[in-house]
Design brief:
Length: 217
């Protein structure tokens, strides 16, 4: 009797482990401004990948279609610096002359709730996040050509000429760092690129190393 009792306990432990699924992870998306990251993010979040978005803080001005707390947490420079000093950021960086940062609460509370977390951050931020979350998945989005990148920046209509020039200059430097990433996806046709990113996330969630350690029997 005791033998069958201990066998059934072992089976239920194993069943609990089998149903626990994978340990949640962070997915970092980087790529030059205008390559289509925000367009990606919106659709990826709707794709049923157990993904939630980490809302960054920034000192840059809100664009007309953006909502405070949903697209970014918009802060003054003083408030941003206060939060740096208070240790509230996993990482922060100056990008195109403004401050941007990942709030620790955004990533931790989502991972604790078993959700994968999507971060749209620049290459400097990606480096720091890799140190904080070494088992994260790092995806770089490339434009089909530099000319199409410029066209998208102009077409978006959110930046004056001088800001577009700065973003294009920075794009060359950022693209040169693609080899620091695990995956490089070209956003030519948006649907195709989204399918590739979704496949990467699904495959990564199936990695054996992401299972919780099995209880010894
Ligand atoms: P990012 O977040 O990387 O700065 P956005 O998502 O704002 O870029 O995209 C910049 C512009 O390019 C937007 O107007 C968007 O609609 C457009 N765009 C995104 N992906 C594509 C694509 N595959 N083909 C053509 N235009 C695109
Ligand atoms: P935008 O102003 O176009 O929304 O973003 C400009 C750049 O800032 C993009 O490359 C974007 O990925 C990056 N960015 C957005 N949020 C963060 C963040 O929290 N940290 C870092 N390091 N970069 C960010």
């Amino acid at each position: 009797m005791s033998g069958s009792g201990s066998r059934s306990k072992t089976s239920s432990d194993l069943d609990a482990w089998l149903t626990a699924g994978h340990r949640p992870f962070v997915v970092v998306i980087s790529g030059p401004s205008g390559v289509g990251k925000s367009s990606f993010v919106k659709q990826l979040l709707a794709a049923g990948l157990n993904l939630e978005y980490s809302v960054s803080a920034t000192t840059r001005a809100r664009r007309p279609h953006e909502t405070d707390g949903r697209d970014y947490v918009f802060l003054s420079r003083d408030e941003f610096k206060r939060r740096i000093d208070a240790g509230e950021f996993v990482e922060w960086a100056e990008v195109h002359g403004e401050l941007y940062g990942t709030l620790r609460t955004e990533t931790e509370r989502r991972l604790d709730a078993g959700k994968n977390v999507l971060l749209d951050i620049d290459v400097q931020g990606g480096r720091t996040v890799r140190k904080a979350y070494p088992d994260g998945v790092f995806i770089f989005v490339l434009p089909p050509t530099l000319a199409s990148l410029e066209e998208r920046l102009r077409g978006r209509g959110t930046d004056p000429d001088e800001r577009i020039r700065l973003r294009l200059e920075n794009a060359r430097r950022e693209i040169a760092l693609v080899s620091e990433y695990d995956y490089a996806v070209v956003n030519d046709d948006l649907e195709e690129a989204l399918e590739q990113v979704a496949s990467i996330i699904v495959a990564e969630s199936c990695r054996a190393k992401r299972r919780l350690p099995m209880l010894s029997t």
